[in-house]
Amino acid sequence: MLPRRSLSLLPRFCSFVPFATMSSKTGTFHLQQPLNYRAGARIQPVDGSHSEEVNEPATGRVMGKFLFSGEKEVDLAVQSAKAAFKIWSQKSGMERSRVLLEAARIIRERREEIATMETINNGKSIFEARVDIDISWQCLEYYAGLAGAIAGNAMIYKPSPLTPISVVMLAEIFTQAGVPNGLFNVVQGGAATGQFLCQHQDVSKVSFTGSVPTGIKIMEMSAKGIKPVTLELGGKSPLIIFSDSVLENAVNGALMANFLTQGEVCCNGTRVFVQREILEAFTKEVVKRTQKIKIGDPLLEDTRMGALISRPHLERVLGFITQAKEQGAKVLCGGEPYVPDDPKLKNGYYMRPCVLGDCRDDMTCVKEEIFGPVMSILPFDTEEEVLERANNTTFGLAGGVFTRDIQRAHRVVAALQAGTCFINNYNVSPVELPFGGYKMSGFGRENGQAGIEYYSQLKTVCVEMGDVESVF
Ligand SMILES: NC(=O)c1ccc[n+]([C@@H]2O[C@H](COP(=O)([O-])OP(=O)(O)OC[C@H]3O[C@@H](n4cnc5c(N)ncnc54)[C@H](O)[C@@H]3O)[C@@H](O)[C@H]2O)c1
């Protein structure tokens, strides 16, 4: 989101092929190269347990197959990281900083190619993917500024099996920028591969981004090895709109809080509490604007909503809407599958963004994370009432408030039990600001100076300059 290293003159291990530029149209990319990355090169896992298909969300087409890594491959990746850490940790902070800056420069240079691959891989609009790529290089530049004074880490990254492709480009860029071979490795797989990583005795920190149920398992496994964990988990965040808000800003804020990346954003403000005086005007405008969102081929410039990540996930989201209707909610717009006119997109995972009215706090659509383009509108009367309702959740990732009364805005965000709060905007996440959750949305922080703390160990060294006095 709106998201959380010597200058080498030539790529030392130039294994990348600019594959996205060759196939930058939806429906044309074919996976040809291995997706694991170890010791500075793409490799096939030595013990690939089985292969899985990777689908293009925009078309539903199989782009290729890749192998899930077994325990032996995970161990080799860990050994590779350990060897690279010895080299990396001997470098000065300034040297590491220069490598990070070089990686940032390469990402800027290859922005369009990387954004295209991201879009092909995850279905979001190219418009949004470009923002993500910009945040990536900004993140590297920000931390390059801090790197001069601190130690670096080696990392093994396991992406979701639904989005295995684009991260390998990042691994290649790090190598090209001068990171020691093995410092950043990629292992592909699902739950079993993730478990091998968490349980490996030489992995000293686990950082997990995903759902609460998986987060619980990650924490249990990490506890057995006394490993520190960062958990970036799900949410069901409140967005509170007071009647004195600038209506147009509040509507824009609600759209930004719900419909980026087809609603697949952890910190989305999906419980939209609207003060009763403006409920009708706000709802009318939100529905009108939602109906105008351009859905379709995510690689087209004017598309603002692409495809959801997978067919099962699309069905799950639609299931939440069916259940909401059964429980008494009213579909004010959208909520059904969408089939674009372009025949190559007919098997893609599209749906029309949905606004639900007549919602109550006890409905499933209001209590559970849907992770799709579904906004629930809930009327309220007083500040005291809305705060109690907004905090009545096991989640605590984010929250937002729209009002012209700045004292009230600060009072409300101070009372919200959430790790990130927005006043008069939503889903803006500059890299300087720490991001993370309260309650079951997790703990630890990504981004900002605070993020460093969760990837560092303190060592206290006490030096005696004189003789040792003893009481014995
Ligand atoms: N807080 C944040 O920063 C943040 C950001 C993005 C997404 N999310 C959350 O992520 C969720 C959606 O992502 P998802 O569907 O990929 O989540 P998920 O929990 O299903 O899977 C996440 C990852 O965990 C792996 N995994 C699954 N079972 C495992 C196990 N037993 N041991 C080890 N690894 C295992 C999966 O292969 C995948 O890579 C949502 O809840 C969303 O809110 C949070």
Automatic annotation (TrEMBL):
<comment type="similarity">
    <text>Belongs to the aldehyde dehydrogenase family.</text>
</comment>
<dbReference type="InterPro" id="IPR015590">
    <property type="entry name" value="Aldehyde_DH_dom"/>
</dbReference>
<keyword id="KW-0560">Oxidoreductase</keyword>
<dbReference type="Pfam" id="PF00171">
    <property type="entry name" value="Aldedh"/>
</dbReference>
<dbReference type="InterPro" id="IPR016160">
    <property type="entry name" value="Ald_DH_CS_CYS"/>
</dbReference>
<protein>
    <submittedName>
        <fullName>4-trimethylaminobutyraldehyde dehydrogenase</fullName>
    </submittedName>
</protein>
<feature type="domain" description="Aldehyde dehydrogenase">
    <location>
        <begin position="150"/>
        <end position="461"/>
    </location>
</feature>
<dbReference type="GO" id="GO:0016620">
    <property type="term" value="F:oxidoreductase activity, acting on the aldehyde or oxo group of donors, NAD or NADP as acceptor"/>
</dbReference>
<dbReference type="InterPro" id="IPR016161">
    <property type="entry name" value="Ald_DH/histidinol_DH"/>
</dbReference>
<dbReference type="InterPro" id="IPR016163">
    <property type="entry name" value="Ald_DH_C"/>
</dbReference>
<dbReference type="InterPro" id="IPR029510">
    <property type="entry name" value="Ald_DH_CS_GLU"/>
</dbReference>
<feature type="active site">
    <location>
        <position position="232"/>
    </location>
</feature>
<feature type="domain" description="Aldehyde dehydrogenase">
    <location>
        <begin position="51"/>
        <end position="148"/>
    </location>
</feature>
<dbReference type="InterPro" id="IPR016162">
    <property type="entry name" value="Ald_DH_N"/>
</dbReference>
